[in-house]
Amino acid sequence: MKFPKMLFLASAVAAGALSAPAFDFCGGRGPDAVTLDGKPAGAAVSIDAEGRVFLQTSSLASKVELLWNVDLSDVRKIYGGDWERTYGSSGWHNPSVRRPLPWYCLVNGADRTDGYGVEVQPAAFAAWYAGTDSLRLVLDVRAGRRPVRLGGRKLEVCRIVARKGLAGESAFEAGRAFCRTMCPNPRLPKEPVYGYNDWYCAYGRNSADSFLADFAEIVKLCDGLENRPFAVVDDGWQLSAERCGDVGGVKNEDQWGGVNAAWKMPMDEFCRRIKEMGARPGLWYRPFYDCESAVNRKNGMDPTSPRVEKQIRGDMARFKKWGMELVKIDFITHDWSKRWNFGSQAYPSPLDVVSIDWQDDSRTAAETVRGLYRTMREAAGDGMYIIGCNAIDHFAAGLFELQRVGDDTSGREWGRTRKMGPNALAARSIHNNIFYFNDGDCVGLTRKGAIPWRRNAQWLDLVARSGTSLFVSWKRELLDDTVRDAMREAFRLASRPQKTGEPLDWMQTKRSARWRFETGEKRYDWGGKAK
After folding, report:
1. What is the pTM of this model?
2. Nearest C-alpha neighbor of 390 from the set 404, 402, 380
3. Staple 361 to which of 143, 241, 377, 468, CB 3.0 to 4.6 Å?
4. Which residue has the higher pLDDT, 111 or 454?
5. Is the confidence at residue 29, as pLDDT, over 90?
6. Residues of the chain with CATH 3.20.20.70
7. Which residues, listed in sequence order, are joined to residue 436 by a DSSP beta bridge?
């Protein structure tokens, strides 16, 4: 292999070769070119001995680019991150200098897999480009769609990390080792998280009475399990923006403080009822959406507005007072960008689709969005877990205990579950219990016959054995003896710590069918074409 010579701190420390931090990227030399907005950066950009990139300028700034001339001609395949969750097409691909690789990339050759990336919690949206003769890192430091105005402030933009793969280790092993370097301080749940979520069997048409009746049947299948299940009520309980006119003009701070006429039950009572069942209550929450923000619904919201942080703190305090132990935080990229699935768009950064000017242009967009995630974390405290859903991946890592790693599965259409579910679990398997605890989304059924049981049974089995979070969405009348037996066993597996399942064919297909678990290897049949 003609990989660039590199020494990676994690590997060296493990071998006892280093006693102090060091940064040695591409043979210990700095980038061959550093530009700021297309011009030589000069003293405005610096890199210290630990790989930290700094930007200090009194001028407006949009993008920092670092280029290394390296020989990657022997590279066979490249694996890249995603800006937020996956959308059914993540995985390995042929090298392409035009393809942005958000946050990091794995570079696979004949004898090993190397990793290049930035540590989690950066102050820029970072994308790598890997060609046969170069590595390029683009750091988008804009404040929304406008250049940032640092005013001479010295900004730590990111920390570059790299890892030289070991001979004989699989790409999966190399990827997980590299992820540990990018996220040295994860925040993980104390025990595996599993249970019930009503979205894919109710789709918002829920009431407290129906939820509790359905969950009562599910919780019976968890009898005897020391680690107790969660009961998460999804969208449908709150005073929604669409219903504001019906309740006399609800203010934004009230939307998440009351329940609608269909749900009926006060949420503190709901929490008490769930705990009486020996389970743990949780809810769905959309923090950037409220009754007052017409612009939010049309063009996206301004996350720099001071009232956004104030609203989040108030909402989270209320949820804690009710007794919630988990909050699923959703739409937190969509509501400021009005865009889904950046991975399939011809944009190098999510900031290219921002359609309104943000008030505060003294902070980078990454600082702003990351700051709101930190607000959510601080407001939740240690008593509530957070599931990031539609969350920026490298900002969620280290702050949220769980992360929805793929787009929605389905309780109505097997094709959607087939596309999203297996791809998310395989493509993000290297993150599990390193960045956060993976949530591959639910095993759901809306009505009898909507999805053949032989399909859902396989999806249930994979999630239960994968060492990730398992949630089911299932009405009580759809639970026959076969389903009950399968779910009982799935909950037993999902309730205890397990080694992360390894997708054995993830370099050949977007929907891995061959897996290695603690209990041995299994093969699944997802139907349709293999890729």
Report:
1. 0.93
2. 404
3. 143
4. 454
5. no
6. 194-501
7. 432
